[in-house]
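step: validate -> pass
step: tokenize input -> pass
step: predict -> running
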Amino acid sequence: MTGFKTPSQEQLQQQRSDRAMYRMSEDFVSGSSSGAKPPAQAFRFYVEISGIVTAEFTECSGLDMTREVKEYQEGGTNDFVYKLPGRTSYSNITLRRGITYTRELWDWYMAGLYDGKVKRINFSIILGNGELKKVKQWDVFEAFPVKWSGADLSTETLQVALETIEIAHHGINLSAEETHAL
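step: predict -> pass
step: emit ->
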């Protein structure tokens, strides 16, 4: 036969994974109790500082890390290049929410504006489920704000005014998976 390609192991694994996710979502919708848990919904998340839920945000981005790869070319080895793990770097986290009547994000950004002594805090970003239980908890270390943005204001729209804060940090850790209630 011409034109027929045998799927790679990676493609087969992806197909199996896709089918499993589809079955889990079908079980969730139908109420089946096969024991499979549905994927977490990304719309219910909170920020916790010192064990107290302090804010609910509408958007969160930047929960990622990248490992540097160092290449080493060994003399006499011509069929490949060694790839070695290097340092891990973290993206800035961006949180967005509707503007409230409190000044906490503004005050946090303004701390250290004139003397360079920024206020670093540890906090957690918690993803909750429909039963108000923690699904995942990412702990963020030595965080400080690097950018604050206010709302775009216009008389031609009825949208909610949003404020955004971008946060630099020294790392994240996944510390909890489906535990107690929020």
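step: describe -> The CA atoms of residues 75 and 81 lie 10 Å apart.
step: cleanup -> pass
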